[in-house]
Specification:
The protein is an alpha/beta fold. 28% of the residues lie in helices and 25% in strands. Among the domains are: 222 residues, 3-Layer(aba) Sandwich (Rossmann fold), CATH 3.40.50.12780; 99 residues, GMP Synthetase, Chain A, domain 3. Strands 2-1-11-10-12-13-14-15-16 form a nine-stranded mixed beta sheet. A seven-stranded mixed beta sheet has the order 7-6-5-3-4-8-9, sandwiched between helices. It is globular and about 75 Å long. It starts with 11 loop residues before the first helix and ends in a 9-residue tail after the last helix. Bound molecules: adenosine monophosphate.
Length: 540
């Protein structure tokens, strides 16, 4: 017997069509470089995204051709998110925080044919222009300034104006590629992940679910997470699919600019990395009555969210939702909402759950794998987190050598180390390469860091493994104190004592002014390890 259902392809063009027809009056607001607000509607967005698709086709774009973007979160970037895949092209977002050599490598590796760039980012493009040869470079005039002549640059606006509106989408299969991102690893060359129309549509549906990000047409969504990093966690697709009002912060990611937008546009959902939320929290604590905010949910991911951050925002009536994911997982893998049977627990228990990375989204499976196979879901046994699902990558683009990242039975090895508790909550304890193994036993650097960041004087802390003659490795904590705050190493160790087994406590605490970070804001522990590798242990 055969099913009797349509084999309807899951493509981004259906999302674009729905948005254009059902929500023409919904707004999209962008903060421009001069801080003024650009406002238009879904009707404008729909027309312009289709114009981009048509103009790209007329310029000779063939199915599967890559179109790169070097852009902030703006209306034009949103047009590229839909217009490029609607033309059959592959949206390739370039991370503007990478070293120009890496950007050049990525453009060459992906063989980008066209490039769309914000005018304010032209100086950045100049730094790698000699090494890359896109056929056409389209400049988005965010400042309204004329485009510099004689450099092979064209106006994005003129390009759109060449479209007539007489345009049909090319025939698209749901397995056609729609977008690509390169992972910004701390070692080795960046690795490309290619998303398909199908994986993107399913990821959008999965993300929008009430128990996941809970996005609806009633929401006002402000993605702080850059559209050049893992597709802004898919939020541009999910928000447009639902018909949410979209608020784009442009290049202004400082706390006051964000808080102003939250207030003026009545934002209900926002998303970003812990560093951003720490800055916003400090601003709120400094001037608690300055901004009148709506009840807002703040998705945090990319690095672990300390429990203290979640608690502190509750005081302002703002709900932090912890989520975990990776470039290779589109990225949403887990979100930490409390299951109903856990809602009767004490406040401390509930916070402890909310601080975990959470339970897997529908259609995503997780397991933690130790030396002899998957470890039990007991909340204690650690193993490498492996995942599989319809929006998880099955390989890297043109990079066979890395294929040991997939297990023989088809799971993706994340490189994160985790425990899973009997309720299914995943808790990331480390990156495999950042693990600390003392006397044959694992110590979780993330647990120590989160606890240290609960100390009132501590702004940030990174805990790393340092070679030790007796224990193989011992933890060293590198701590950044808050402005004007003071604490001694002894005091911080005492603070940790009641929370951890004695052998987990860092043997050394050093005070530094700043923790080195990757281009996407994650702690660059390799650099710290290098800096302190010859540390002389007093007791050794
Ligand atoms: P990226 O591909 O750049 O998004 O980086 C993915 C990596 O970020 C993951 O493998 C984790 O190591 C880390 N990560 C993402 N979300 C979280 C989280 N909520 N808690 C801890 N680490 C996270």
């Amino acid at each position: 017997m055969q099913g009797t259902m349509m084999n309807y392809p899951l493509t981004l063009t259906s999302i674009l069509e729905r948005a254009g027809h059902l929500f023409p009056k919904q707004e999209i607001i962008t903060r421009l470089p001069d801080k003024s607000l650009h406002r238009y509607t879904y009707a404008d967005f729909y027309r312009r995204a289709r114009a981009l698709a048509e103009a790209l086709q007329k310029a000779g774009l063939k199915k599967g051709d890559r179109v790169a973007t070097l852009s902030w979160n703006t209306y034009a970037h949103l047009e590229a998110y839909f217009g490029i895949p609607a033309a059959g092209g592959v949206l390739h977002t370039l991370n503007l925080r990478l070293h120009p050599n890496d950007v050049a490598y990525i453009v060459q590796h992906a063989e980008d044919r066209f490039l769309i760039v914000d005018d304010v980012l032209l100086p950045l493009l100049e730094k790698c222009r000699a090494d890359i040869k896109p056929e056409r470079v389209l400049v988005v005039p965010l400042t309204g300034q004329p485009i510099p002549p004689g450099m092979g640059l064209e106006s994005y606006e003129d390009f759109l104006a060449s479209a007539t509106g007489d345009f049909d989408y090319p025939a698209l299969s749901e397995d056609d590629p729609s977008g690509m991102c390169y992972t910004s690893g701390t070692t080795g060359k960046p690795k490309g992940v290619v998303y398909t129309h199908r994986s993107t549509v399913l990821h959008s549906l999965g993300s929008a679910l009430p128990d996941v990000l809970n996005l609806s047409m009633k929401d006002v969504l402000l993605p702080v997470v850059p559209m050049f990093h893992v597709m802004a966690w898919g939020l541009p697709f999910t928000g447009v699919m639902m018909g949410s009002k979209m608020v784009m912060p442009g290049p202004h990611l400082d706390a006051a600019s964000l808080l102003d937008l939250y207030e003026s546009e009545k934002v209900t959902k926002t998303a970003g990395v812990p560093t951003i939320w720490m800055g916003v929290l400090q601003a709120l604590q400094k001037e608690p009555t300055r901004w009148k905010l709506q009840p807002m949910e703040m998705v945090v991911g990319g690095s672990a969210a300390p429990e203290t951050l979640i608690r502190a925002y509750d005081q302002f009536g703002l709900k932090v939702l912890h989520a975990w994911g990776m470039t290779e997982t589109s990225p949403l893998g887990t979100t930490s909402r409390l299951k109903t049977n856990l809602q009767g627990g004490s406040a401390d228990e509930q916070y402890a759950y909310r601080a975990t990375q959470g339970i897997p989204t529908p259609l995503v499976e997780v397991r933690a794998v130790g030396e002899s196979g998957p470890v039990p879901w007991d909340g204690v046994s650690m193993g490498e987190l492996e995942v599989r699902g319809p929006w998880v990558a099955s390989g890297y683009y043109r990079l066979e050598a890395e294929n040991d990242k997939w297990s023989p039975d088809g799971w993706f090895r994340t490189g994160d180390v985790a425990t899973i508790n009997p309720e299914g909550y995943v808790k990331i304890t480390d990156r495999t390469k950042d693990l600390i193994k003392s006397g044959g036993e694992w110590i979780s650097s993330l647990d120590l860091e989160n606890a240290l960041m609960g100390h009132p004087a501590v702004k940030e802390a990174a805990v790393i493994a340092i070679p030790h003659p007796k224990w193989a490795e011992r933890p060293l904590a590198a701590v950044v104190l808050k402005d004007g705050a003071q604490a001694t190493a002894e005091e911080l160790k005492k603070y940790l004592e009641p929370k951890f087994a004695k052998w987990w406590l860092p043997d050394a605490v050093v005070f530094i002014s700043e923790i080195p970070r990757t281009s996407t804001g994650k702690f660059l522990k390799a650099q710290l390890r290098d800096q302190y590798k010859s540390w002389q242990w007093e007791s050794a």
